[in-house]
């Protein structure tokens, strides 16, 4: 997998290598690109929150938020209007849509590195 930061790519094969690149204070924008297929996970880090954007051969998606307790992972809805009305997409108090914690963003990056697939720890909304 290639990790792109400020136009520079670094090859990573293990979570420890990825964590070393992200560091304690992650860079603002990071793109993880699959070596095996056309799939990318873009992460925007800011203060204590992050945003995730997924691209693949068939999907362009935004992370809505973390998977609520009891909901199945890796769900996708057609747009944000449906997500607001779907109880499976409920957000914890104080969480804004399209935001996750840094820890959840790292978890998504780790899963993508391990599986080469779309992370399942967040809910996804089709990008308008």
UniProtKB/TrEMBL annotation:
Database matches in Pfam families: Imm1
Protein's UniProt name: Imm1 family immunity protein
Native organism: Micromonospora globbae
